[in-house]
Design goal:
By secondary structure, the protein is mainly alpha-helical. The chain has one domain. It contains twelve helices and two strands. It has a two-stranded antiparallel sheet. α2 packs across α9 and α3 packs antiparallel against α4. The relative contact order is 0.13. The N terminus is likely disordered.
Length: about 240
């Protein structure tokens, strides 16, 4: 029972850290571009020779209904992490909704293979620990291209560790080989979902590195603020803190 008060204290510290940096002049979001481009080219090669062939083969042998079921299964697991982050962000309504989604789909939806919750009108949200840090005022920091994992930032990269430890498959499966297989299938399934975008990117005349970086940073900012302005986000956050007093 001590976890929740400790989490609130932790979030308050993060919020104060963000406020202290609010007045700083916005800097170049990609000061490590030379290094990031090298990692980008490495990742592109790894994807071309390894991940994409696996994803194409996976799609070729997997019937569409089964592929949909697999995607639903992992989406259901992500609802657990989303609920955790929503509670830490003080989004209690969304947190309870995501918890309900997880239990409904895990039971009635046959371990998440069928998205029953969405059919019942329970909206799906998208939250991770990087967004939680951003909501509490921690700046994104420089853009970082992570080996194998792709686009990230100095804030979102380390947050992946927390995301790993708040993922159900990290704890619910005792057999190491099976747990690793679940993670591998997750990566392959996510790559298979992006195959349709490959043809679009092939025709892009712009620098693909710049396009990916700008798209990632824009989307992360949108997710952190829930599409609201910075002032609206801070006003809502202060109101929620006042309600807890």
């Amino acid at each position: 029972m001590r976890f929740f008060p400790m989490a609130l204290s932790f979030c308050a510290v993060l919020f104060l850290m963000g406020c202290a940096q609010k007045q700083q002049v916005k800097k170049d979001p990609d000061p490590w571009e030379d290094f990031n481009r090298k990692v980008f080219y490495f990742n592109s090669g790894f994807d071309h020779y390894f991940m994409k062939p696996f994803a194409v083969g996976y799609q070729a042998v997997t019937p569409p209904p089964v592929e949909t079921g697999v995607s639903n299964f992992y989406a259901n697991l992500s609802d657990f992490r989303t609920a955790f982050n929503n509670f830490i962000q003080l989004k209690f309504s969304d947190g309870f909704s995501d918890t309900g989604r997880f239990f409904v789909n895990s039971t009635v939806g046959i371990v998440g293979l069928v998205d029953v919750a969405s059919k019942m009108g329970m909206k799906k949200h998208n939250e991770d620990f990087g967004q939680t840090l951003g909501r509490w005022g921690v700046p994104s920091g420089p853009y970082v291209m992570l080996p194998f994992l792709g686009p990230s930032t100095a804030r979102d990269g380390p947050a992946l560790i927390v995301d790993y430890y708040t993922a159900p498959q990290t704890y619910f499966v005792d057999v190491v080989a099976l747990r690793n297989s679940l993670w591998a299938l997750d990566f392959i399934n996510r790559r298979a979902e992006l195959i349709s975008l490959d043809a679009v990117l092939q025709d892009v005349a712009y620098d693909k590195y710049d396009l990916l970086r700008d798209a990632y940073l824009t989307r992360r900012e949108y997710l952190v603020t829930d599409g609201r302005s910075q002032q609206e986000k801070e006003d809502d956050l202060m109101l929620e803190l006042e309600l807890l007093e």
